[in-house]
Amino acid sequence: MYDLVIIGAGPAGLSAGLYAGRARLKVLILEKGGVGGQIAITDIIENYPGSMVDQKESGPTLIKRMRKQAEKFGAEIVKKEVKSVDFDSEIKKLTLENDEVIEAKSVIIATGANPRKLNVPGELNFTGKGVSYCATCDAELFTDLEVFVVGARNSAVEEAIYLSDFARKVTLLVRREKLRCDEIVKERMEEKDNIFVKYHTSIKEIQGSMMLDKLVFVNNETKEEWEYEADEDDGLMGVFVFIGTIPNSKLFEGQIEMTENGYILTDSKMRTNKENVYAVGDVRDTPLRQVVTAVSDGAIAAVACEKKIKGLDY
Question: What values do phi and psi take at 58, rounded to 5?
Fold first, then answer.
């Protein structure tokens, strides 16, 4: 019997494990993949307070320290996939991949969300090497370079505007005939003299040597294809993909209240509609998905969990 089981070992889950471990709760963190989640494949991190500035801070180096810190205070981390959950009883039950059943007084869901991918050749190979899904994270890396933004809704246009303050040139790639953003967002974009829009255009392939330096485009109307190479003096360019995210919440369908897009609904203490079940990080309905907000969520949920178990006001 665990006091707390955390599903997911990204920044939110590790933060929750740290706080719960320091509160002397018996904590288990379950992770089906690699510890760290999306941040583990990020090459450079510059916007997390306290990250190293005198040497390169990467996702793996940050996660390594987070994991070590959580384990130092007693959080047990096990690589196993949760296949089903039962949150209806006072004691929560989680069935793992080998039919093992784990019981806990409380559960924190920290399963994250994944950016929706283009699913074109080269995308995976150049993720973190020119392909990004977070302008806030990576814009500065493309200062004075050329970047392409894929998407047509508010998020894509807003991120293009943000990138325009760093990049020399921003080209917004829209697969259909018009933008699908709010008019005021479009007006703000049009005030920028270094943002250009190409309609009916998609990326067919992403290429490069060490870094992304060539793209293959296709016109969705005429089916014409053409190649585009990075400026010789630059040596690289960027592609930012903003076509939505997919929360990793399917496991909890029918158990937890969610938005129509599958994000888990919580209150300010990270509590879901099920007693003693919390959700943190990118899987919950939140306006910002960053490492700093994820670890904050984890701390809030762990403290709420501790107070509940110990019968204290919070």
Answer: -115, 170
Nearest to 76 by CA among 145, 5, 19, 146: 5
Contacts with 255 (C-beta within 8 Å, 6 or more apart), sequence order: 85, 86, 87, 88, 274
Beta strand 113-115 with 238-241: parallel, antiparallel or unpaired?
unpaired
User: Where do the DSSP E strands lie in 73-168?
Assistant: 76-78, 82-86, 92-96, 101-109, 113-115, 131-132, 146-150
On the question of pLDDT at 288 being above 90, the answer is no
Going by C-alpha positions, the residue among 203, 202, 201, 197 that lies closest to residue 181 is: 197
Question: Distances in Å between the alpha carbon of 79 and those of 32, 40, 204, 216?
Answer: 5, 16, 36, 39
Which residue is catalytic, options 137, 181, 297, 305? 137
Mean pLDDT calculated for residue range 142-157: 95
Q: Please tell me the pTM assigned to this model.
A: 0.78
3-state DSSP assignment of residue 231: coil
Backbone angles phi, psi at 299, to 5 degrees: -65, -45
Q: Of 3, 43, 99, 138, which is the active-site residue?
A: 138
Q: How far apart are the first and last CA of the chain?
A: 24
| Residue 138 a catalytic site member | yes
Rounded to the nearest 5 degrees, what angle is found at the Cα of 35, between the Cα atoms of 289 and 262? 40
Strand order through the sheet with 201-208? 201-208, 212-219, 225-229
The confidence score (pLDDT) of residue 292 equals 94
| Catalytic site residue from 3, 134, 213, 282 | 134
Is 137 catalytic? The answer is: yes
For residues 180 and 235, what is the distance between their CA atoms, to the nearest angstrom?
A: 33
